């Protein structure tokens, strides 16, 4: 590293002599001269002087060796690991000394000098030696020197002798100088393109360069994309037109360069299924789509064609680009077809093998994306070569060219493509048939080597799909499903199946037919088209089959009715019974024919057998069904008459025209049949009859409305009511019959989501008869203290559903209550009111009804029933007042509902009362009617001293809630402050319930802001009048609590902290219980969140962004917590009274809150200890 000249000009070694490093020179001097102590001092001084005068830092940086550097350039490996005695350690120390000396000499900081020297050394290192071949990557010698240079720079950096900022500045100067040396951007682009191409060449020549080159390309592509798109924030919008050509020019170079890497055709043929759009790296597909925005589809195809015309292409990138193109651009399908046509014409005109290969690869790649974006490969192959106008039909040479190409593909391509070529071969003249057969033989041999049978290919198999081939039996099942779908849609056997039965007989016989004949999963409900297309002969055959299957039921496996995880199974006998429905007129006809034929055949077949054998071989369900249908359809059967001499009807059923009514009545009169009806398992019980009757659709019944009503009355009063329970009847108990009807009806409605339209008139008639019996019994002094049987039934059923602790139980309970409500609404209103007789006086009671409404919140107006029931009382007006007064405390929700709908209810009540009495309405009804009145634009409240405050408050709130103008609300509240301040507290409660309703059941037309504003206004009035409102949250107002569902009461903490922004700051001092209530509400709010009950509010938050901001439970908990932690230190001592009760809950849910409460309570107690006592 010494130089005899200036420091700026490197020394030139003498010709024929190798330039040696400093360490070698020093070692040589040690070996040649003997060590003399007296010369050591002089030698060191001379060496130092010589270095100071002639040192060249650039060469010094490049000559210092690092024996620990590896081939890979990793900064973590550039630390100084040399042990004492190794020359590298002394060399680094020497470089440091030289740098410090040089910096001191020229007056420059060491860090800046080391950075400048490093950049200068890098520039010198990257220069191409004269006479060497042009290259883009550093050679091995240059990399070693670069490794040494980086090692020195890392060592200097660790010593604090290297300035990074100065290094970046110097690097930037070199880059700017390099760019200015090229006159315009196009020269820069060409220079960059040429160098990247050199990288590709070096990468091809050496496998060792692959990893380095890959990293280089990855970095360049990232920079290209970032720089090319940074000035176009949204390519979907209109951009400045002058910028698009610049960006397009850059991207065009990148696009063509990116797709021009080399790759083998064999790899492309074998691996292109892995290069589909779905399997391509998302980063790459994103890059493609950004390119598609810059260029039009035609330009993209043009650039793609230019790339394909180059000598070597990267097939993975080209084909993945094709896949992305057809998936993302609708116009690409036709453009790709045109490109394929161009390539095929070019291939057969000049017998260009490359064009042929390119066309096949692109066609297969595009087909991999499915028929929705491109035609299947099989269709493209048939269109290209399967007709006389194919590309290969011009000459024998073209045929030879085609089959030579297909034969060359055989060793490399996937089996599905060879299957297509075999099953859809090119159209070949007879005289050249041998060419085709040679290829088919070759392809079949290859398939045999791959253990793939051409016979196993499915009828509807997607051969162009990128999915893995399925097992042959699975493919056959898929073919059967597809064929069945086509048959259901068209009503004809698919042409594909017909062709396979002739031309693909091995697959058809060995695969398709066995899959078709596998027992199918039967639907839970039968096909309705079965119920009209069956002739009498068909019915007879099915009936005989059902009897024989039932006879052999021990050997017949159970049938699976569904494919889900909750699949049901049933016996073959039960399945036949389920098929026979009687919902419509046509199904009645099928049912009677089938049942009569089956039972008649059994009686004939087993006529010589014992009665027990006959019972075992005849399905009991068929006997029940034939009883129901015959009794319903034929009036003659309702009078029992059995004859021994009547012939069995089976012999007459095979005649061309069968009289099924005559056959059914003939069977009905058979003695053996009547004996079967006495068997317990064959009895059609009252419950069975109800279930069968509920399935009938009244709109399509075989009976008219009058006939159906007469049949219902006959079945109830003559058949089942007088019959004993042992025989399936009701023991003469009408209430028992009504209870069985209700139980059966509820179960039926819940199972089939149906109503009781067909049975409603009979049900109403039974209940009315029971009401008359109850009234007659009350005249004799009997009491119905047990309550109405309807509510007893409801209560008993609800007890079996659990307490509603789970979502499933709550849903079942809700469905059950909906059925109860529909039942009650179909009955006379008087059933809701009980009548008691005390001596000569009659009194009304609603205990059962009140309990049902309070517990289940099923709101049904009792006013019509109340006015009807009071007719039997001596003082009707008094009884009405007593019931409504009791309602205020026992079931207030009924009155609040009446207040809400009074404008519609009042005319009905007035009309009914005036129809029976000539007096005015009872006082309690008058109070409801006079509790509110409003006129526009000013609302005026009537001051009724007789009306309960919460009723007036309810009516007032409903009016305020309907007003759109906030000024009217403020005016009304101002009037309340002066005249009726006792209404403010219940009005606040109704406002809170409305706020909760807006959270739990938001209305699309109204956000929660309006109820929140109403709450805030009412709260302000309460604060202004110094009226304590904490009692609502302490749950001490029992009457008001009955006005809302339990869920709303549990959610009161949510409303408490929704209003925290409107609380008066003096509350903690004025209200002793406020701290206790606030902490209690916070803990309950946290408990609601932990239990998941606030999820009902969160689920509704998606209705609007405004609603979401208002009802975020977690945000509200955070706000409540901060509110308490801020105000607890300011609370007086008396506020902590009773707070100890909440500490256990605090410890469980919020230990910090507990600590804050204890700390402030203790500090207040300590302050009292140190306070001087007041002695005077």
UniProtKB/TrEMBL annotation:
Name listed for the protein in its UniProt record: FA complementation group A
Sequence ranges assigned to domain Fanconi anaemia group A protein helical in this UniProt record: 473-530
Pfam families: FANCA_arcN (PF24783), FANCA_CTD (PF03511), FANCA_helical (PF24781), Fanconi_A_N (PF15865)
Stretches for region Disordered: 1-20
Fanconi anaemia group A protein arcN subdomain domain ranges (all copies): 531-638
Residue runs in coiled coils: none
Domain Fanconi anaemia group A protein C-terminal: 951-1152
Organismal lineage: Eukaryota, Metazoa, Chordata, Craniata, Vertebrata
A single cellular component GO annotation: Fanconi anaemia nuclear complex
Superkingdom classification of source: Eukaryota
């Amino acid at each position: 590293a010494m130089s005899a000249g200036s420091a700026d000009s490197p020394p030139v070694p003498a010709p024929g002599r190798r330039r040696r490093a400093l360490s070698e020179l020093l070692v040589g001097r040690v070996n040649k001269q003997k060590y003399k102590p007296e010369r050591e001092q002089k030698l060191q001084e001379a060496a130092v002087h010589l270095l100071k005068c002639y040192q060249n830092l650039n060469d010094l940086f490049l000559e210092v060796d690092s024996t620990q550097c590896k081939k890979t350039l990793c900064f973590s490996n550039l630390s100084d690991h040399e042990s004492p005695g190794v020359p590298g350690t002394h060399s680094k120390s020497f470089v440091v000394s030289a740098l410090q000396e040089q910096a001191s000499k020229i007056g420059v900081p060491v860090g800046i000098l080391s950075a400048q020297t490093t950049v200068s050394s890098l520039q010198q290192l990257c220069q191409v030696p004269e006479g060497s071949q042009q290259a883009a990557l550093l050679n091995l010698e240059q990399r070693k020197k670069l490794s040494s240079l980086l090692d020195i720079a890392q060592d200097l950096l660790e010593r604090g002798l290297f300035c990074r900022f100065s290094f970046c500045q110097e690097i930037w100067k070199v880059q700017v100088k390099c760019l200015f040396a090229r006159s315009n951007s196009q020269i820069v682009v060409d220079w960059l393109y040429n160098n990247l191409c050199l990288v590709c060449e070096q990468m091809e020549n050496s496998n060792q360069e692959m990893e380095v080159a890959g990293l280089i390309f990855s970095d360049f592509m990232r920079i290209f994309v970032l720089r090319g798109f940074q000035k176009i924030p949204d390519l979907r919008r209109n951009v400045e037109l002058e910028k698009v050509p610049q960006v397009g020019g850059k991207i065009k170079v990148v696009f063509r360069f990116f797709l021009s890497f080399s790759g083998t055709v064999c790899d492309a043929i074998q691996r292109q299924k892995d290069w589909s759009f779905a399997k391509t790296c998302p980063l790459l597909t994103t890059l493609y789509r950004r390119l598609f925005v810059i260029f039009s589809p035609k330009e993209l195809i043009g650039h793609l064609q230019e790339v394909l015309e180059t000598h070597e292409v990267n097939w993975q990138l080209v084909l993945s680009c094709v896949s992305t193109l057809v998936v993302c651009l609708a116009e690409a399908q036709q453009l790709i077809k045109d490109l394929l046509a161009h390539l095929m014409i070019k291939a057969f005109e000049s017998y260009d093998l490359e064009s042929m290969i390119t066309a096949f690869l692109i066609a297969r790649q595009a087909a991999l994306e499915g028929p929705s974006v491109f035609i299947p490969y099989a269709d493209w192959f048939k269109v290209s070569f399967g007709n006389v106008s194919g590309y290969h039909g011009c000459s024998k040479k073209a045929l030879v060219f085609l089959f030579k190409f297909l034969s060359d593909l055989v060793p490399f391509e996937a089996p599905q493509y060879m299957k297509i070529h075999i099953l859809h071969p090119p159209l070949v003249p007879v005289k050249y048939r041998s060419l085709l057969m040679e290829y088919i033989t070759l392809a079949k041999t290859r398939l045999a080597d791959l253990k793939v049978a051409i016979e196993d290919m499915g009828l509807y198999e997607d051969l162009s799909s990128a999915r893995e081939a399925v097992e042959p039996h699975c493919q056959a099942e898929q073919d059967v499903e597809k064929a069945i779908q086509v048959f259901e849609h068209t009503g004809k056997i698919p042409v594909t199946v017909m062709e396979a039965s002739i031309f693909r007989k091995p697959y058809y016989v060995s695969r398709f037919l066995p899959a078709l004949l596998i027992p199918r999963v039967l639907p839970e409900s039968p096909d309705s088209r079965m119920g009209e297309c069956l002739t009498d002969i068909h019915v007879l055959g099915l009936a005989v089959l059902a009897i024989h299957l039932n006879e052999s039921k021990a050997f017949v496996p159970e049938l699976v009715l569904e494919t889900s995880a909750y699949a049901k199974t049933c016996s073959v006998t039960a399945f036949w019974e389920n098929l026979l429905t009687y919902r419509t007129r046509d199904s009645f006809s099928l049912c009677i024919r089938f049942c009569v034929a089956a039972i008649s055949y059994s009686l004939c077949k087993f006529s010589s057998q014992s009665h027990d054998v006959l019972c075992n071989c005849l399905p009991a369900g068929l006997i029940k069904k034939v009883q129901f249908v015959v009794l319903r359809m034929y009036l003659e059967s309702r009078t029992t008459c059995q004859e021994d001499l009547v012939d069995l009807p089976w012999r007459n059923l095979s005649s061309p025209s069968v009289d099924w009514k005559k056959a059914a009545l003939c069977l009905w009169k058979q003695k053996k049949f009547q004996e079967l009806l006495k068997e317990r398992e064959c009895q059609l019980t009252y419950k069975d009859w109800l279930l069968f009757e509920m399935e009938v659709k009244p709109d399509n019944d075989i009976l008219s409305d009058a006939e159906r009503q007469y049949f219902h009355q006959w079945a109830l009063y003559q058949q089942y009511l007088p019959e004993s329970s042992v025989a399936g009847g009701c023991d003469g108990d009408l209430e028992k019959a009504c209870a069985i009807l209700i139980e059966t009806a509820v179960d039926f409605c819940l199972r089939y989501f149906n109503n009781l339209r067909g049975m409603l008139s009979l049900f109403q008639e039974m209940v009315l008869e029971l009401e008359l019996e109850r009234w007659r019994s009350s005249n004799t002094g009997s009491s119905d203290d047990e309550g109405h049987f309807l509510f007893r039934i409801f209560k008993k059923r609800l007890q079996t559903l659990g307490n509603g602790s789970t979502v499933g139980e709550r849903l079942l309970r809700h469905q059950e209550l909906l059925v109860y409500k529909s039942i009650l609404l179909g009955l006379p209103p008087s059933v809701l009111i009980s009548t008691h007789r005390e001596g000569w006086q009659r009194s009304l009671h609603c205990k059962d009804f009140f309990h049902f409404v309070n517990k289940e919140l099923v709101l049904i107006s009792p006013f019509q029933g109340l006015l009807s029931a009071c007719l039997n009382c001596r003082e009707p007006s008094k009884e009405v007042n007593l019931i409504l007064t009791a309602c205020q405390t026992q079931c207030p929700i009924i009155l609040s509902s009446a207040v809400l709908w009074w404008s519609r209810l009042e005319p009905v009540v007035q009309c009914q009362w005036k129809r029976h009495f000539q007096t005015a309405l009872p006082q309690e009804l008058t109070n409801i009617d006079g509790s509110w009145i409003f006129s526009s634009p000013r609302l005026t409240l009537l001051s009724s001293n007789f009306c309960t405050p919460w009723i007036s408050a309810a009516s007032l709130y409903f009016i305020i809630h309907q007003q759109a103008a906030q000024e009217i609300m403020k005016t009304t509240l101002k009037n309340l402050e002066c005249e009726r301040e006792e209404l403010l507290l219940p009005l606040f409660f109704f406002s809170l319930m409305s706020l909760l309703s807006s959270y739990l059941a938001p209305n699309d037309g109204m956000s929660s802001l309006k109820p929140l504003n109403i709450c805030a206004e009412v709260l302000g009035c309460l604060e202004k009048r110094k009226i304590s409102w904490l009692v609502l949250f302490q749950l001490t107002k029992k009457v008001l609590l009955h006005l809302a569902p339990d869920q709303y009461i549990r959610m009161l903490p949510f409303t408490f902290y929704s209003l925290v922004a409107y609380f008066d700051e003096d509350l903690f001092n004025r209200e002793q219980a406020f701290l206790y209530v606030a902490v209690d509400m916070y803990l309950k709010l946290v408990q609601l969140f932990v239990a998941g009950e606030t999820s009902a509010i969160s689920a509704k938050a998606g209705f609007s962004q405004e609603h979401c901001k208002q009802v975020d439970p977690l945000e509200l908990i955070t706000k409540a917590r901060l509110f308490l932690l801020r105000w607890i230190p300011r609370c007086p001592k008396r506020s902590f009274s009773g707070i100890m009760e909440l500490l256990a809950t605090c410890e469980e849910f919020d230990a910090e809150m507990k600590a804050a409460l204890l700390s402030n309570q203790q500090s207040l107690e300590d302050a009292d200890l140190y306070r001087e006592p007041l002695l005077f």
